[in-house]
Write a structure and sequence with these properties.
By secondary structure, the protein is α/β, with parallel strands linked by helices. The protein contains 17 helices and twelve strands.
Length: 392
């Protein structure tokens, strides 16, 4: 049965955001909801199996060895956070799972500093349980590693760096383990780390990540859409003082982001992450932005992380070479390339309750309109407020 064995089996940016939430917004609350983008049909009894796995997560605890690794790896995080994490445990009461026929509903609610850790492991468990219960057979272990090695042989020739970003929609823990093993053992310097803190520790590599869309979605609930990016980045820099300096740009479209990404922030942050829309258009927009601020784009980096495979990476490299720094975060093309259809699912924050206020709907306005999330009326209002054309 699918289950987690470590509290660190989660993406690094969840912990970095949790630390920032504990420091800045300890009274804030959040609600999240599962979105079945791929219209997957869940078999009878799925909710019960998922509940069983979620209930087992209550037993996960940060071990002394994990605490030592995490603290040594992240000296920019206060020791008090690691003490907090050692006392933290998942509370299954925060998660409501129901099933109606083949439709699955998953909702999370509670203090934001607690519920922030649920998204990634829940998605990983949903994927693994789905493949188990539908009886789909993947390729064998040797083939999983061969697929990774063949990809890395090609990536090596591009003279780039790559990180694993594949926890959320991995086929299973076992496949993810094989993938990181193959990446780590591959005889090159192309692989530089993983977003998964547990595997970073297991395979002696670097945990990679900064923040996610929910950071800016909460700031919109607290401060309004026009101030969300600016105050989100200001608060991030107040907490991390220059560390973890890759800014996520597409919570309310990249065009809106760059209007608020002023010269101070453009100089302070090491670069930006691309997560939706055309990557070449994004790269050009980013280059133009830095040049307009008198900044050499070659001193900055774009982390590309939107549904990448080899063909997409080649196009991006051919365009970006000698124009701007670039690196790549590859997700399901590493951790779910096992001969089966990949799942298309997300879990997104839907409402936030700031320290002082009320439950407020939150949305995401991706650079790809099909990836917008949230209440349709709220999306329309935000677009009007931010002067975003209706069709975008």
């Amino acid at each position: 049965m699918a289950k987690l064995t470590s509290i660190l089996d989660n993406d690094f940016y969840k912990f970095t955001m949790q630390y920032a939430v504990v420091k800045l917004f300890p009274k804030a609350k959040a609600r999240y909801q599962f979105i079945n983008r791929g219209q997957h049909q869940f078999p009878e009894g799925f909710a019960a199996k998922l509940k069983e796995a979620v209930n087992q997560m209550a037993n996960l605890k940060l071990t002394s060895a994990e605490k030592t690794f995490f603290a040594k790896t992240c000296p920019y995080i206060d020791p008090t956070y690691f003490d907090f994490l050692q006392g933290y445990h998942y509370d299954p009461e925060e998660v409501k799972i129901t099933q109606n026929g083949s439709d699955l509903t998953v909702k999370v609610e509670g203090y934001w500093y607690r519920t922030i850790l649920w998204e990634v492991p829940l998605m990983a468990l949903i994927c693994e349980t789905y493949y188990e219960m539908t009886g789909q057979k993947r390729v064998d272990d040797a083939e999983v590693m061969k697929i990774v090695n063949d990809k890395m042989d090609k990536y090596d020739k591009l003279n780039i760096t790559i990180a694993d970003f594949g926890t959320r929609r991995r086929h299973s823990y076992a496949v993810h383990d094989l993938v990181i093993k193959a990446l780590k053992e591959h005889p090159s310097k192309t692989f530089i780390g993983t977003s998964n803190v547990h595997f970073a520790m297991k395979y002696h590599t670097k945990p990679i990540g900064t923040h996610a869309h929910e950071w800016f979605m909460f700031h919109a609930a607290k401060y309004g859409y026009k101030m969300a990016n600016l105050l989100g980045l200001e608060n991030w820099s107040d907490v991390y003082r220059g560390d973890l300096g890759i800014a996520l740009s597409d919570t309310y479209t990249t065009k809106v982001f760059f209007k608020q990404f002023d010269k101070k922030l453009s100089k302070l942050f090491d670069g930006v992450r691309h997560d939706s829309g055309d990557p070449i258009e994004f790269a050009q927009m980013t280059i133009d932005h830095y040049k307009s601020k008198g900044i050499n784009p070659m001193n900055k980096t774009i982390i590309f992380s939107d549904g990448l495979d080899y063909e997409k990476v080649v196009k991006i490299v051919n365009f970006s070479q000698d124009k701007i720094g670039h690196s790549f975060g590859i997700g399901t093309d590493f951790t779910n390339d096992v001969g089966l259809d990949r799942m298309n699912i997300v879990i997104k924050m839907t409402e936030a309750y700031p320290d002082e206020g009320e439950w407020t709907p939150v949305i995401k306005l991706s650079d790809e309109p099909k990836k917008h999330t949230g209440d349709p009326e709220e999306i329309k209002m935000a677009k009007r407020f931010l002067n975003i054309p209706e069709h975008e």
